[in-house]
Each structure stands twice: as C-alpha cells, then as structure tokens.
C-alpha cells in the first residue's frame, strides 16, 4: 500500500512538473510587443496597465513597457535604446517632437482615415506616421482660496505679488515646459517676448525637470501656482473628491498639447503594434485614457456626458501649431541664454 501511494505521488508530481514546464515554455514562446512610453502613462495609475491587460487577453502575446521619465526625453531614449531593445510602438510624442522624430528615426505609415477625430485637433493629422491619442489645454492651476488675486494674463505674472510663486518646468526636459515657452513666444512681439522671458526667469519659484515634480511642489503648497493642464482640477474632483483647485483663464489664447504615437519602421511585432494603436482609438480605449491621463479624447463625442465637458468655454480660446525643428532649437537657445543671464536676441 505504501509503495502504491509513493507511486501515485510520484506520478502526480511528474504531471504537475510537466504542466508548469509546458506553461513556462508557452510563455517563453509568446511574442513580445515592446512599447516605449513616458512614466505617468505606463505607471500603475496611468492608462497603460489597463490597456495592456485588455490587449494581452486578446493578442496571445506579452506587452513590455520601456519607460522614459517624461515625454520631453522620450525621443532620446528611443534613439539610444530602441534598436537594441526593439521598439514596436512609441507613445507620448507631442507636436514639438514630431519634426525631429521624423528627421532622426524612420517610421511605419499608419492609416489615419478611419479616425473620427475631434474637429478641435484636425490640424494634428497632417502626416502619415503619427496618430494622436489624447490632447489637453494648458494654463496655470491654483487653489480657489488664491483666486481673488490670481493672474488673468501672462503680463500679470510679472507683478510683484507673484514673485517666486510660479512652479514652472524646464523646456529642455519637459513637454509642458516647452508649451509654456512657446505660449509666451506666440503671445508677444519679438521685443516684448525677449523682455518677458528674462523677467519670468526671476519670477519663477522653480523650473522642474518634469511636470510631476512641478505639480508636486504645488500640491505640497511650496508654490501656489503651477503651469499644468486645465483638466488637472478634474483629477482632484474625481479621485480625491476635492473641489478646491481651479484652472485659470487668460486673455491670451491657451496652448493645446496633442500627444501622438508612432510605429518605428524596424518594428518586430508591427501588426500587433497596429492592433494596440487601434485599441487606444476605440471608445473603450479613449475612455480609459481620458479617465487615467485626465486629458481629452481625440475621438469625436467620447467626451459627451462626462465631467470633461465642463471646460468647453476654455477649449474655444486655444491655438495649436506644429513648429519646425529650427524653431524649437531657436526657442531652447533663447531659453538657455535667459537662464544664464544673457540678453535674449530680439
């Protein structure tokens, strides 16, 4: 009897071992889709993990995310590691990266004709390689307790009351930082822009390397105003049930940031990368991105019936442009000169 039990136990363990070995072998042979993205997109609080779960259930594949800390350095990481690690999809470019990305990396064409895109960002569909997946309007965010003295224009930011109270981002490493620099460039003539840039350097509380760092200073009340997205207060309303935050309306037109994704031409899992793009553009994918990124969906009418409709008035007072590589480089040089105390060329 004892020998029989030992025999049965041995058979049982052999079967269990074989099962797990087979499972492990199957996992090892699954195709891997490698997606480069910025940290807030692929973190457990961002839309990446939920999209990944949905995708893996259908694709019989594995999705691996490769992280860049901020959208501003995403292109650098793809250039340095994309060919080594293998990049099937890149998520997180904005309009300031597009021309440089086109000139430095080869991309696979994507059919954009099927996207029922929001009319507000039709201008972002002027290429065959990059697909928009969300967009946002930028301004300053503060607490309602500070609204009585809040700035109403860019020029107001230079008033003594706001000295060392503005949490800004470094445009060399942060996409919102670049948006702010471009905003002031487009809002003043050359002479006034040069003067404003040099003065705002002195007004700022800090220039953080990323949006998350700057917003953290604001949350900790180290700076009462932060350059951010007009949908940031919606995050606090939904997640924290906190209504104390407010986006500011300026007299100048506010900048729009559009975020894009693209498939490198040397992708290994190209078709699966396209499938992931298509998932992100379904109503389901767009709602996940909207409610995790707290940005507007690019697909028309997805926003209807949601809290995101509350910003419609501000959305009308916006502008969107895709600058050239030369223009971006010129802006960054002007920024560097101003930071060093050099006179900005007019």
Tell me, briefly, the overall form: globular
Roughly what fraction of the amino acids lie in strands?
15-25%
CATH class of the largest domain: Alpha Beta
| Number of E strands | 11
Task: Return the structural class.
Answer: alpha/beta
Q: Which CATH architecture of the largest domain is right? A: 3-Layer(aba) Sandwich
Largest sheet, strands/sense/barrel: 11 strands, mixed
- Cα distance, first to last residue? 97 Å
* Number of separate helices: 13
Fill in the CATH topology of the largest domain.
Answer: D-Maltodextrin-Binding Protein, domain 2
Low-pLDDT segments: 18-27
User: What order do the helices and strands follow?
Assistant: HEHHEHEHEEHHEHEHEEHHEHEH
CATH homology superfamily name of the largest domain: Periplasmic binding protein-like II
Number of domains: 2
Structural description of this entry:
With 346 residues, the protein is α/β, with parallel strands linked by helices. The protein contains 13 helices and 11 strands. It has helices spanning 2-28, 39-42, 48-59, 74-85, 98-104, 175-187, 190-203, 211-219, 232-239, 270-280, 283-293, 312-315, 325-339, and strands spanning 31-38, 61-68, 89-94, 130-143, 166-169, 204-208, 225-229, 245-247, 254-262, 296-297, 318-319. Strands 1, 2, 3, 4, 5, 6, 7, 8, 9, 10 and 11 form an 11-stranded mixed β-sheet that branches.
Question: Which structural traits does this protein have?
Answer:
alpha/beta, D-Maltodextrin-Binding Protein, domain 2, eleven-stranded mixed sheet, 346 residues
Secondary structure elements and pairings:
Elements: H1 2-28, E1 31-38, H2 39-42, H3 48-59, E2 61-68, H4 74-85, E3 89-94, H5 98-104, E4 130-143, E5 166-169, H6 175-187, H7 190-203, E6 204-208, H8 211-219, E7 225-229, H9 232-239, E8 245-247, E9 254-262, H10 270-280, H11 283-293, E10 296-297, H12 312-315, E11 318-319, H13 325-339
Parallel strand pairs: 1-2, 1-3, 5-6, 5-7, 9-11
Antiparallel strand pairs: 3-9, 4-7, 4-8, 4-9, 4-10
